[in-house]
Amino acid sequence: MKNSILFIVFVSFSSIFLGQEYEVGLSLGGTNYVGDIGRTNYIYPNKPAAAVFFKYNWNPRITLRATYSYLPIGADDKNADTDFKQNRGLSFNNTINELALGMEFNFYEYDISSEDKSWTPYILLELAAFNYKTVKSETSPGVYEYTNKTSYAIPIGIGYKSKLYGTLAFAIEAKFRYTFEDDLDYSTSRIQSLDFGTNGKDWYMFTGVSLIYTFGRPACYTEGL
């Protein structure tokens, strides 16, 4: 009896995984930051970055996804468009490691196994946790002790995806992360030499191209939404 139950459970889970379309992929692109240092362009990638992701196509309009992103960021006042920043001459580099969960909402029905549903633009809504380096203390003038900090962001994005060949597809995507922090550039009111921040929160962005591999049988999509 126990073996029969285990067999039924195994078959049920196998049917779920084989009866849907899943996607894994790699994104390559660039990042930029908007805050107290440097330029304020929301799409101006200047640091190479990468991400890996897993997607579950819930129905032809909605895709659930999980993403890990490696996102170096940096800025330099010499590239700013104001004399104040150019004369100030600040610069910084930091690295963000991010985990995000979210949904893609397709403008058109998307199904890579169907010839007439093999492309669509989409919007992306996510919640993200990210880790980065921040200044803990100033041990001597101009010498700082750093620590890691974890926070949260609300990423939104836009993209376009299309079948490439067979089970391969590609996507072009831009994501914008609004954070609840003002120290991605190490600014802090606790240390006088780094007290250059404002009341505005920092943003970081990723723009890139993805290669996507699709597996599983053509989906029997979940009804709803």
Automatic annotation (TrEMBL):
> Domain DUF6089: where?
6-222
Name of protein: DUF6089 domain-containing protein
Q: Which InterPro entries match?
A: DUF6089, OMP/PagP_B-barrel
What the entry lists under Pfam families is as follows: DUF6089 (PF19573)
